Amino acid sequence: MTARDHVTLEIARADGRRSRHVVPVAGAHMRVLDLLLHVRNHADATLGFRYACRVGMCGVCAVRVNGTEGLACQVAVGDLGVDTVTVEPLAGLPVQHDLMVDLAPVLNDLAAIGAALEGGDAAGAESLRTLPPSAGERPAIERQNGCITCGACTSAAHRGGGAAGPGPAALNRALMLALDERDAKGRKRLANLPAMTLSDAALKSLDAVCPVGIPLAAAVRRLQGLRAGAGG
Amino acid sequence: MERASCDVLIIGGGGAALYAAIHCHDANPRLDIMLACKGLVGKSGCTRMVQGGYNVVLHPEDSFDQHYDDTLRGGSLINDQELAWTLVTEAPKRIFELENRYGCFFDRNADGTIHQRPLAGQSFNRTIHRGDLTGIELISRLTEQAFARRLRVVNDLRGVDLLLDQGGRRVAGAILFDYHSGALVRVQAKAVLLATGGAAPLYRITAASIEKTGDGLAMAWRAGAELIDMEMMQFHPTGLIAGGGAITGTVLEEGLRGAGGHLLNAAGERFMERYDPARMERSTRDRVSRSEFMELRAGRGTSEGGVFLDVRHLGKDFLLRSSPGMYRRCLSVGYDMATDPVMVTPTAHFQMGGIRIDRDCRSSLLGLFAAGEDAGGVHGANRLGGNGVAESMVFGARAGDAIAAYLKDAGGATPDRDRAENSAARFTAAKGRAAPGRAYELRAEIGDLAWQNLGLIRSAAGLDQAAGRLAEIEAALAETPVPASAARDPAFAERLNVENLIAVARLIRAAAHERDESRGSHFREDRPETDAGAYYNLVQRRDPSGTTSIQRQAVAFTRRRPEDLAGDTVIAKAAPRPALHATEI
After folding, report:
1. What is the mean pLDDT of residues B60-69?
2. Helices (H) and strands (E) in chain A, counts
3. Cys bridge to B237: A160, B44, B137, B289, which one at CB 3.0-4.6 A?
């Protein structure tokens, strides 16, 4: 941690310019979100950015900080260890206003591949299944769970040269459902699922940027394996 | 003004809104449902932030009666007894549906049975959860189910005012404001559901999602709907203090206190000795929060306005095992809980009061429904942990079903043109003497005012003073400009926020003044006793002339009488499985 009491914040703005602001840092634990709020409240009332929960649970404040995806409410300024902090909107998503992007494509990706449980005959059951947490694929499903659809992986995949198609978050959810014994479609979901074509390095970058630590590269690989098995 | 129409307009983007949309669609797939949210549908609101879990009777040794009695005791017996009974008896149905139909998965015991954890104020371990991220599981699965149904979802489109018919007693749609175009959109709808999530962020320090600014409450009030018990606002005793950071106010789970954590003032004294020597830190949320506030007011807090939560003696192993998420969160702002006391503050957490509804979420205006934190009455004077998200799921579903049933017979109403124009008038471009950014300052000012005068400790004098300050803030807000184009103008959006917060603050102020007793989360230092013989709700309504009336209405004891629930109002009378530590959102 460094003990800078000011940093220069450089923000990519809607009109293509970059605004620069010298912003006080009240402590090394101050977040990028705190800097953005400072600019908006004291320097430029028009600065556009999203935030809601401020504890890393809603995922709307995802941006690129010094080039790398992260949640503005979680990235601590002191951890960056630099004097200039650059904040840009996520890549690969439509920019709406300064740092605000349209996250609808992330959710639409999920809808496009039908990524929602289909309960089948058991959907109306008035009881809960007995499902030991260590049995079958349950641990594997739990490992992939917790996505906050923030778009960080979409952005990283785009930068890594990922082709159009369902993003990593959607593929991860498809995997969870394919493994889920409760889903009526199960592995049949995999038949028409487009593959994700990313280099190993780009796949690794997905794991690095996921703010909730989901092993996305493993998900993509497991999907490939399942598809190869299912198609045979 | 742009125009649109639909059968059902749902305003909000959290659990109640999504649940309603899904149920309404499934009840009648031909209905044209529009889901409009000031932020992003599925990402706004507080369902997503739930840590603790969802209270539901599943165990054979538990019962609806026990859950119900806990809920009424927790609410100091002024809950709407029919709403509370609905909450308790329908909570299991929603859990079965969430798991079996929508794809949620809740934590299991090693043998595969559902895990239920203890929470404060409950006589049985009945809270189901998914780790300490229950809300993400709920909202993610509801969002994907809503998207799978191809509903019309519009983000960044906030509610401004309800449209009424000429008689003024029937809702005919709403006027919405599009952040991106800066235009008003007049949406004609046969039914409107308000599910925007209350106004805890009125207060300077809050645990809730900051974008919630009482929009639904203010819209309902302006339209003349009845609101109930608006004075009832819950404060959680352990909000994190993180310098001047935005993370300040977010909740550290109650389990830390329940497990034996100490609360210390700046001098290192366990100050609960002064306020509740029998229960100390394990006392109820309202008392502990109030005690902290007393310490701060007496000058025994830290220079940053906090006290300390000291859990060092519990040991690092225990802390990592029982509260890994909290441990990480504290570490990320510079406290190692195993070696450092953590600075905490009371934090505004949940609004019990809200739009008065019946079991089918119908408000007092025809065609207007409310669910989730926008609705009032379920929790009475204080909410139990784990009952909040249950409310959103149960009443969200009911609202969806009830709207579909209502639309079998009901047609649309014709919006009254004059009212619509009146409501659009405040969007007419106007130069202001203040800078646009003044709206942010005024938000901070109303937050301070609410904290000091409408918060944990109230008095007639403080409430009178607040009336004057609110008028000043309103006058100052009127000096901020209304831009010719309000497209993508966050300062103007904040102006709309503050406008609603002023409306809600006035409702809270008036109700807190009228309730000249202390009960649950409402404490009047000039009237510190609970009025033992008088159980009433406060109902507020704005009449067409603009005057807001307030009435005391006796609680209808349809299922329990106070003598049935004698004894302590919050701590459980008997605990089959004693709660060693409790966890709350």
Report:
1. 97
2. 8, 7
3. B289
